Amino acid sequence: MQVVKKQVSMKTPNSPVLNSAVLERLIKEVKQVNSVHGSYDRVHNRHNR
Amino acid sequence: MNKLDTILIKVASRCNLDCSYCYVYNGQDTSWINQPKRISTEIVNNLCRELSIVSNRQPEGFAIVLHGGEPFLLGEVKISNLLACLRNVLPDHEKYPIAIQTNATLLNNKILDICYKYRVSVSASVDGIRKANDIGRFTHDGKSSFDKTVDGIKLLASHDQSDFLFSGTLSVIQPTTNPIDNYNYLKSLGSKSIDILLQDGNHTYLPAGKASFNSTEYGAWLVELFQYYVNDPNPVPIRFFDDIIKIALGDHPEKEGKGEQGFGIIVIETDGEIRKNDTLRATFEGVDYFEGRPNIKSEYSLLNVLKSKEFAAASNVQYPTSKECQTCEIGHICGGGMPLSRWSQEKGFDNPSIYCKDHKLYIGKILDILGRYAL
To answer: N or C, fewer C-beta in 10 Å, chain A?
Structure first.
């Protein structure tokens, strides 16, 4: 059986301007990880346990 | 050799607090009773030898977490000796970050100076405002631990090296409390990063505050917090949500319990026994034992465990097996949640999480908001 994974929608001309500090930071982090490291470095895994 | 992500060292097998929800002392496992109260110099030396062997074989770094019980029950001298030994074999503090998870009640400036000397970060356990903390976090005579904990956190936040030392706070969710009050209070204490945990529980032993598999007390609490967090103009990172958002954006989580990937976690007991992820102890006694009960005292014992099929299987326990998870449209995001919360006496780990409905509720909200911004 093919599982349909839920995805966030694609950007449209009517999308609101991003005004969340949390999301801005995370988008930047994800872009940086993808462009610099290729994959996330899990060394810092579980600092707060 | 399978990859080691985190090695968690039980430096003290007792705690000066008696938290009602503790998976170590108030769960299903009683093996701590027979453990030495503190890790010995002999075990520390053996452990450092084994870590040196592994670090020479594994190109990637790994994290070291000092845990317990309460790790600072070890005392200043023994903590200092332990850290000196670890840093002697793992000198690169970026490749091999060492962190301590503490209830903060025993902190003093001398201990914090020792931690900074060896580049060890400190994370404090506190459940939020006094009302939230006093639901579950007691001393052994049943009194509140709040004042001593907050005093310790303030000391940590005011240390001249707190930028490095204070990695953040860790809170267990008390679903009857106001999540926004807790978040704002932890911010006011200077927490650098706020992490939250669902209370340990499963289909056989329901977590406190959860009425049934279909109820969503925790999910509703998380939705309320997320809506506030995502609109906070000066947010302190909440890793619980950040991991979900990162997965939704195509990245990976930092911590087990979410997403589709394995985690290589090893636990060292105070007597030197090498075990699997200790959070599994919330299910049944013996769940975290490796076959043959390997001990760090034997040369190459850690390396041999890392090479074993048993460790590979334990690292992959995050992947859910139940039919419901495998056909779920958000299964790739929640990853089936923490394995311990899938367990039942009847079907083992082959169930959806007891928090399945909660995961669907808050992840649905997160995806809605990401979708609104067309991310």
So the answer is: N
- pLDDT for residue A17: 78
Report the pLDDT averaged over residues B36-46. Answer: 98
Does residue B203 fall inside a structural domain?
yes
**What is the total count of domains within chain B?**
1
Q: Are residues A43 and B8, on separate chains, in Cβ contact within 8 Å? A: no
B200 reaches A (C-beta below 8 A): no
Report whether pLDDT(B186) > 60: yes
Interchain proximity B373–A20, CB inside 8 Å: yes
Q: How confident is the model at residue A48 (pLDDT cuts 50, 70, 90)?
A: very low
Output the DSSP codes for B104-172. Answer: STT--HHHHHHHHHTTEEEEEE--SSHHHHHHH-BBTTS-B-HHHHHHHHHHHHHSTTHHHHEEEEEEE
CATH number for position B98: 3.20.20.70
Task: Summarize the confidence of residues B296-313 as an average pLDDT.
Answer: 98
Taking each helix axis as running N to C, give the angle between helix A21-32 and helix B217-230, from 0 to 180 degrees, rounded to the nearest 10. Answer: 90
Residue A42 has pLDDT above 50, yes or no: no
CB within 8 Å of chain A, chain B residues 325-344 = 326-333
Name residues 230-289 of chain B within 8 A of A (Cβ).
230-235, 237, 239, 241-242, 245-246, 248-252, 254-256, 263, 265
Domain extent for B143? 6-369
Domain-embedded: residue B375: no
Q: How close B211 comes to chain A (CA, Å)?
A: 26
Tell me whether residue B236 is in a domain: yes
Q: What are the residues facing B125 on neighbouring strands? A: B170
Instruction: Name the one residue in this structure whose structure tokens are 């990401």.
Output: B370
Q: What is the pLDDT of residue A37?
A: 38
Residue of A nearest to B64 (CA): A47
